[in-house]
Predict the structure.
Amino acid sequence: MNRAREDILGKLQAAYGRRPGAPAASIPPAARIAPRRPAGPEAELAQLLTEIERLSGVTRRVANQEALRAAFAELVRAEGVKRATCWTTPDLEAWGVAATLQALGVEIVPAHADKQRVASCELGVTGVDAALPETGTLVLTSSPERPRVASLLPRVHLALLRPAVLRPDLHQVFAETREAGYTVLISGPSRTADIELTLTLGVHGPKSLYVWVME
Amino acid sequence: MTQTPATIDFRRNTQQVPLQMPAAVQKATAKFLGTRAAVVDALGNEYWQVLRQAGHDIRLHAITYIDHYLAQAEQAVTRAGGQVHWARDAEEARRILLDIAARHRVKLAVKGKSMATEEIGLNHALQAAGIRVLETDLGEYIVQLKGVGPAHIVVPAFHLSKEEIAALFRDKLGVDAPAEAEKLTQIARMKLREEFLAAEMGISGGNFLVAETGTIVTVTNEGNGRMCTTVPPVHVAVVGIDKVVPDWESLTVLLKLLARSATGQKLSCYTQFISGPPRSEAETGPREMHLVLLDNGRTRILQTPECRETLLCIRCGACLNICPVYNNVGGYAYGYPISGPTGVIFASQILGPKLAGTLPFASTLCGACNDICPVKIPITRILLHLRRRVVEGDESEPATAPVSLRLGAWVGALALGSTGLYRLGSKLLRRLQAPFVSGGWMADLPAPLNRWTMSRPFPAFAADFRQWWRGRYGKARPE
């Protein structure tokens, strides 16, 4: 196996006449692009929500704890939620997500439970680590409190977002997430156009994406 | 499923293109080009050109210092707890995957769409070892059920009608399938859901490999890519060595270019960044992560300076969509999983002129591919070099064209390269053509020139250009 490594690197060095271990030249300045200049916070948030809606996501602004309870009651009814799995970050705990769902008669399945059980959830609730207005994109990282499967296996993904997580562009997001072990950018619900180019939502990932702004 | 044929005869393949193929292809490519044009317009053409140049420069830099960046990526992946394997060729890559599968007693593997695994014929090898392997991208799933390869690198099954797909589902899955895109998609979701949860191994490709942190980037829409890399206990990514990029800042450019050029989206639905397996037991995700770095002829491409830029490709498929040849024959005529202009320059070099000597000629050299390419690959310039390689040979390959073609090319070069011979030729041709001309056209020419007149007449040589010019403008030189 190491022979393969030496062979491949050797051929590459021979192709360019480089010594083993030679450093790279610096990256040409023309290969870099300028960061985006953000608009004001309210305009940025409005653009984010517009773009998410354009991608068939459903957005909502939640003013307080009471409004959150009402929103959950509506969602549970509309989507027929019986089981849910959710992140356990301090934000979601503070918003009382699991407790609110339980009070509505929804069973909470821990994300670390058996895969079949997590997959049987109708709803996955997550926070958002960053968001991009220009493309309507949610940025989610992974940690023990942020299970990857919560935004993937259930039929409905609900993301709760603080306005403070908005970032102007990928430059800023990458500066913050480059050391993370896992990051996913989510732009709208899962989609395909593989059959006769007909846009169809909900292939393997969630069929519906709800984004609630916690104000 | 895909197996590389012994020799690719493009001309013969085009004669087997189903009649409905061109219309289906053109419907799809027109749609993609339309959505692409809209998002490019939204950015403004001036900024788009700045992005293309930046994309070109960053990719060229990456492959120029590829040895450095690969070593850096290897170190970073290892530090993150992933295992790195190097594969010189398809055989070695297949063996690495079979070993990993055997170690984990894998019976079922799920696969995201990956041109690198198509290239190494992975499915066939796994199946031969008794492992079920399932394509999970909806289009790939459909073509796998049908037992064929992808007809397009972005939308593999676009040439099949929903009626055909419904019939296929009824036949192969034994389900009641109505001919509706939504219902068929739901059937595939249900069927594959069970497989994702049961699979012991997930296989993916990688759109990019970030050297500084050893991060594998996957760009997908359906969520199957996320499933394959998240749900099974083992994740293996097969990535061509050319996919390496220096850093995350490079991605800000390349991600802007990729989805826009491919599907007209600003960003794909899911873009994942995976640096090794999960860092703690308490995280969800695979327990083990492997990266297979695939050469399989890429080092040879880099040995020829004229051809290196072949490897700048980010596999968006825009050059397929715009290509007049692709639009009339579809993907299968190319006899290789990657088709269209980028497939032609890649496959001709990976397979060599003996197997793929007809491919560089599968182009009109119109240059639309150069203009649409988001990383500015000079595709037609590379094509010309590859044609020359077939006819004359170069430092890396001997000539493979038949003697008649080589002789013809030699005579042509001689005649067109000398004023005297050119003048003599133009006089001679007008004499020689006389028996065949009728009403200004030649309807039938003797072999081998009848390859042209079989399908359309050839216009007769009307006059000596120099004489015509003198008659019209006297001694003035052409501007």
Observations:
- Residues 427-473 of chain B form one domain.
- Residues 10 and 358 of chain B are 6 Å apart (CA to CA).
